[in-house]
Amino acid sequence: MKSKMKYKFGEKIRAVRERKGYTLKDVAKKAHVSESLISQIERNKVSPSVDNLLLIADILDIDYEYLFSNYRQKRMVSVLKSSERGSIQKEKVVIHQLSIDGGSSKEPEVEAFLLEIKKNGTTGDQEYGHPGREFGIILEGEAELLYGNESYILSEGDSLSFPSDIPHEFKNRGNKVLKAIWVVTPPRRLFKN
Amino acid sequence: MKSKMKYKFGEKIRAVRERKGYTLKDVAKKAHVSESLISQIERNKVSPSVDNLLLIADILDIDYEYLFSNYRQKRMVSVLKSSERGSIQKEKVVIHQLSIDGGSSKEPEVEAFLLEIKKNGTTGDQEYGHPGREFGIILEGEAELLYGNESYILSEGDSLSFPSDIPHEFKNRGNKVLKAIWVVTPPRRLFKN
DNA sequence: ATATATACTTCAGGAGATTAAGTATATATG
DNA sequence: CATATATACTTAATCTCCTGAAGTATATAT
Q1: Phi and psi of A113, rounded to 5°?
Q2: Contact A12/A3 with Cβ under 8 angstroms?
Q3: Rounded Cα distance, A69 and A60, in Å
């Protein structure tokens, strides 16, 4: 009688394996682990190490996102009215909040802002790299993205997307105000609400 | 000399923990595991069990998606010029592509669209639920989101965010064209490019 | 100098994951 | 029918994760 285990995905792995017509041995061989380990994992007898789980997921072509999908349960719509949104004012930059945490304690997977950058303004002196991914679209104005040692010029209507883990800086290089929508995943939680 | 470990996320956990000002002891106590385990995980000395990893990720409010992100990642900026973007035309709906896959074979974690919905138009007859999360902001017009059996009314400037796994439908309920930016994670790959 | 406190690391031993060998059941084959 | 082969599950030994206590490091106080 153990079952201290909390997150069970054994059934999912088994289902996929069987649908693909693999045997325990097949998977075990490819993953360089024992047949019995696969058996126990599929029956939720053990909580495998992350290494082994990813290995097995890889072999069966299972997105781990799917394995954990019943673990992340956030089923709320969070609406933020334009009149209620917060903003952070800096010298040349205004960041308007566009997303809020859902009601539950769980966090949303995206966070969005409306960026307004005045002439010669910038989001930060080569902001430190951080995890995740960013997406942006230029609503008005001319922008330059400095990314590592590369530079990208963007005009109205252009959109872009990149991993955030390389230092980056977003600048207004035109004469009018630069407006852009910015979406970050995972959330950085600039607004606590 | 062990180091059979393949996927290292220790640094990420440590970085987040420190940014949040938690000590090893704080996290250990909340997760009901030992301080030394946290220390070893953060220094990649062990590959923790899935149970423990999820527990710790929860406490630090880290999306596991992020922990595994260099496992499925790419590091390219992909820019899409407004003149080059594709669009899907339906009777009352136009979907303009705002993001593209990076050069590498790995997929980006977000996909973005500019939605234009004509009077009385809708994105789909209660579109089937699918995994992930969506974020939207209304640029122009009046909208209604049907979500499960709930309904949300949205006006210009309002933004919203919700998990996609419940059937949902997005409708124009005003007299002019509804324009909205829509971000989906993970990508649905409407545009193949 | 010594004490006290906080944050983290190391190490030996115990708990739990993983292996190798053995059991069980089914289907085939001569 | 015997026995051979294939798949999945169990058991006992082994290895890795994990714990608890002791140790290092740095800071602040007395």
Answers
A1: -135, 155
A2: no
A3: 17
Q: pLDDT at residue B106 above 50?
A: no
Average pLDDT over residues B60-86: 67
- Residue B7: the pLDDT is 85
Confidence of residue A5 (pLDDT cuts 50, 70, 90): low
* Minimal Cβ distance to B71: which of A48, A54, A76: A54
Nearest to A129 by CA among B161, B70, B1, B3: B70
Q: Give mean pLDDT, residues A122-130.
A: 61
Among B61, B161, B165, B188, the strongest candidate for a mutation testing the A interface, having the largest count of A CBs within 10 A, is B161
Residues of chain B in contact with residue A81, where contact means CB-CB under 8 angstroms, are: 155, 157-158
What pLDDT score does B130 carry?
63
How buried is residue A137: exposed, middle or buried, by Cβ count under 10 Å (0-12/13-18/19+)? buried
User: Mind telling me how many Å the CA of A40 is from chain B's nearest CA?
Assistant: 14
Can you point out the beta strands (E) in B75-187?
78-80, 87-89, 93-97, 111-117, 133-140, 143-147, 150-154, 159-163, 168-172, 178-185
Chain A CA closest to residue B49: A49
Q: Is A165 on the interface with B (CB under 8 A)?
A: yes
Q: How far is it, in rounded angstroms, from Cα A61 to Cα A5?
A: 24
Phi, psi of A145 (to 5 degrees): -105, 125
Domains within chain A, CATH numbers bracketed: 10-67 (1.10.260.40), 82-185 (2.60.120.10)
Distance from CA of B16 to the nearest CA of A (A): 10
Residue B31 is which amino acid? A
pLDDT digits (tens, 9 = 90+) for B139-186: 889 988 887 667 788 888 888 877 776 667 888 988 999 999 888 876
Does the pLDDT at position A189 exceed 50? yes
